[in-house]
UniProtKB/TrEMBL annotation:
InterPro entries: GlbO/GLB3-like, Globin-like_sf, Globin/Proto, Globin_bac-like_CS, Hemoglobin_trunc. Its cofactor is heme. It comes from the Bacteria. CDD domains: TrHb2_PhHbO-like_O. SUPFAM superfamilies: Globin-like. This is Globin.
Amino acid sequence: MNDEETQGESAFAVIGGEPVIHALVERFYDLMDLEPAYKELRAAHGSDLVQAREKLNWFLCGWMGGPQHYTERFGHPRLRARHMPFKIGIQERDQWLACMGQAMAEVQVPEPLRTRLQESFFQTADWMRNL
């Protein structure tokens, strides 16, 4: 059990709630557009990122222990099934993780939460691979 959980605080509370998660998601998708290092990841998302931004924001709120915006709208996330139509290999996984890591650093997600999230993101992103 980590320090935040032993003090009764969820990741949602530690990160700063919806405003910080929203800033994190916005930065994550902005970086995809700005950084050539994430070009394959960006290409996998199609031309419009509006829905992707909303869905990731809603998902992360609930996943971190806050309001269940995603499940209220769409039901169980079924992450692997929802991502199966997209080519997700090691390169896409690594670009997603690097982009999210950069976004977390830039919005100043506190340690040790950033490390804990990065570990969880790796496990999920690796599980999503279909190539």
